Amino acid sequence: MEDHASLPQRLLLRPMQSGDLDYFLQLGCETCGSLHGRPSQTKTDLFERFRGFVKEFAFRPESEIWIASTETVHYAGHLWLYVSTNRFNGIKELWVWDVSVAPGCRRQGIGRKLMEHARQRAVEQNCAELWLLVAEDNPSAQALYASSGLTARGRMMAVAL
Q: What is the per-residue burial (b if ≥16 Cβ within 10 Å, else e) of 91-103?
């Protein structure tokens, strides 16, 4: 991905098209892998598993993927949303499964605009809550989500066996 030091202010969001899939897989594997990957796992294995996950879930009716672009940057980032109903309380939720900004496009407000779009889509789909998971070692993302109004609800913990 290219470095775009000064992107134009106008950000366009559009549904993902087939030509976006390679960029989506590359960037999404990077960000999802930081949370779900394991040190012993090869990048190839992680990529193939992510590709399988995308194949299984990305094209379901409850899933939508938005691509951020500008007049000069075809793929500045993406937002993967998934609508579900919480089985414990019956509340309709919108999950941000992935929000990623291309490395050369970061720190320019794109992540914030993607999160604003997630909130807007949640309202449009009559969801009561917006959720996401964030890695503990990603303070930049945590700050973005907090500034978007999200707050911590519990804490996931794990142990390798």
A: eebbbbbbbbbbe
